[in-house]
Specification:
This protein has three helices and eleven strands, in the order H-E-H-E-E-E-E-E-E-H-E-E-E-E. By secondary structure, it is mainly beta.
Length: 170
Amino acid sequence: MFLSDVELKEMLEKNPPIVSGLIDADIQVQQVGIDFTVNRIERLEGAGSIDFSNEERVNCKSTPLEFDSEGWVFLPKGAYCVVYNEHVNLSADLMMLGMPRSSMVRNGCTMGLGFVDPGYCGRMTSLLNVHNGNGLRLKKNARIIKWAFVRLSENVKDLYNGVYKGENTD
């Protein structure tokens, strides 16, 4: 079952809150999810490696991009990593699913997302693909993705404890 805006607002008041670091909960909490905002953008560079056991996994390098004095960054066509302002704290009975806001799609952008497992805590990141040959201007703190929270039928046995737990907590 997806959590409603009423449930999400209640869970923002708990300790720890389901999400912290919101700029304006009244704007970001939507009917069936929470809009997350851009903290930084990184240009992906080089090759990565992925294997079965993750023993040989290597994430590709990335370079943070600078926002101009008015808070904008221009993104030419290409692949980028987005790090969000918000921090997540998922309990044993919650997971997240993300979708780009429709304005991103209307501007020729897609986002690569995955499930977020119960027990994950930390900042979220995702892939931003700018397909528009004319690029995209993106402002710091822009709302670009909606994360929906799904209550599981029961608590999971093992909480997420992977290498990304607690990532990007600066």
